[in-house]
Design a protein that fits this description.
12 helices; disordered N terminus; 12 strands; about 400 residues; NXPE4_C; membrane; about 10% strand; Rossmann fold; two-stranded antiparallel ribbon; six-stranded mixed sheet; transmembrane helix
């Protein structure tokens, strides 16, 4: 009798708890796409009722999609086109990017005394020979110009004149309009933007959004009026205007601290680590990290010289949390002289770097897909449209983490 009782007891236990155990195992298996959120949930504490995310799994769903061209006013189109023309003129390039002899492709041109001195020679998209085919500007339709070694500016769009649509229909972008919205997510946070000029642009775009209704915007107080007029939404991201924007900012009534740390070479590692050490054990602190271009997309160097020392320095600390930002796509103007910075090199670097980061439990914001179809103003950098979108995606990700339970 005693044996039978114990037997029944175990049967009851199995019947009652087995379904729950199976459910838990299935749930764990289904969490693959959510693991980064779980790893980051410790970022925030307390109840959260201010805003609700409109996209599940931002890291996967919001960064994949396509651009749709907007219905525009003539003035909006002119502002963007004129910006690109002025940048080209500044670098001593024909504004239509075409050589008089119609040679293009693996040919470099540009002034030799300022800025980025070499660019790829291309073809005038509005001219009679818009397709660069076998290193010669020829007449071909857009479809005919879709080939391996073809270059066609007609196939690129301006993000400022387009809207990003995530491929996942249920993923909607919550648009943050300015300081009030942004502070609902960023309040009490400290964020360090560490990396090259891509990270500098993101930092500027964040400040631009948060200070859009302030007299000087993202610029330091006392910036000359003529500088403010020249450095509008488009030009503020250029090297001419960037010096008028600081590297430290206290926002959200001094509850949010933002800092931009320029980092693009190995002899800056010790200073970078020293800066990150300031955040050790500081709750709600984040390091946004993005490097690669100036390391010639050599992942082994980045891992051994940058990532491993950084993670080792944080091994015994719960803060800060690290988020990796992938490299954007190179533009058509990228000079063939930059052998290791071409589009294909960037693709392979991102694939391997993203995989490495995920293995180490580091969330990845991969912006390559949204930059590939977009016109770059110098072959490397993208304008306000792309960087404004990056800010929105970043804020949506922070919102998703903050509201996850």
């Amino acid at each position: 009798m005693i044996f039978q009782y114990k037997k029944r007891k175990w049967i009851y236990i199995v019947v009652i708890f087995l379904p729950a155990a199976v459910f838990m195992l299935l749930s764990i298996n289904s969490l693959g796409g959510k693991m980064n959120i779980e790893m980051m949930q410790s970022l925030f504490s307390g109840q959260w009722n201010e805003m609700k995310p409109s996209c599940i799994n931002v890291l996967d769903n919001m960064v994949l999609g396509s651009w749709e061209k907007d219905k525009l006013k003539e003035a909006e189109m002119a502002a963007v086109v004129n910006f690109h023309k002025k940048i080209r003129a500044y670098h001593g390039i024909n504004v239509n990017l075409q050589h008089k002899d119609n040679i293009c492709g693996n040919v470099m041109h540009g002034a030799t005394n300022r800025g980025i001195t070499q660019f790829r020679a291309l073809c005038d998209p509005n001219g009679s020979t818009p397709c660069c085919f076998e290193n010669k500007c020829v007449f071909k339709t857009v479809e005919q110009c879709r080939c391996k070694n073809c270059f066609d500016l007609r196939q690129k769009l301006h993000a400022e004149l387009s809207t990003w649509i995530p491929a996942e229909p249920t993923c909607k972008i919550t648009m943050f309009a300015g300081e009030e919205d942004s502070c609902k997510v960023m309040k009490d946070m400290t964020i360090y933007f560490i990396g090259d000029s891509f990270m500098r642009q993101l930092f500027i775009a964040v400040l631009s959004l948060m200070r859009k209704n302030k007299p000087y915007g993202p610029f330091i107080n006392g910036t000359p009026t003529d500088t403010l007029k020249y450095c509008d939404r488009h030009y503020m991201l250029t090297t001419e205007c960037s010096p008028w924007i600081g590297v430290n900012a206290d926002e959200c009534k001094n509850t949010t601290r933002l800092r931009e740390i320029g980092f693009w070479k190995t002899d800056q590692v010790s200073e970078m680590l020293k800066s990150v050490k300031e955040l050790q054990d500081q709750p709600n602190s984040i390091v946004l990290l993005s490097v690669g271009l100036h390391f010639q997309f050599n992942l082994q160097v980045v891992e051994n010289k940058v990532l491993n020392p950084l993670l080792l320095s944080l091994a015994n600390s719960s803060w800060p949390k690290v988020i990796w930002l992938s490299a954007p796509s190179a533009g058509l103007m990228k000079s063939p002289g930059y052998k290791y910075q071409q589009k294909e090199n960037g693709i392979q670097y991102n694939i391997k770097a993203n995989e490495l980061m995920r293995r180490k439990g580091i969330p990845v914001l991969d912006f390559f897909n949204m930059t590939e179809p977009v016109m770059s103003f110098d072959g490397t950098h993208h304008g306000a449209g792309v960087n404004d979108l990056k800010v929105q995606v970043l804020l949506n990700y922070l919102l998703e983490i903050k509201t996850s339970t």
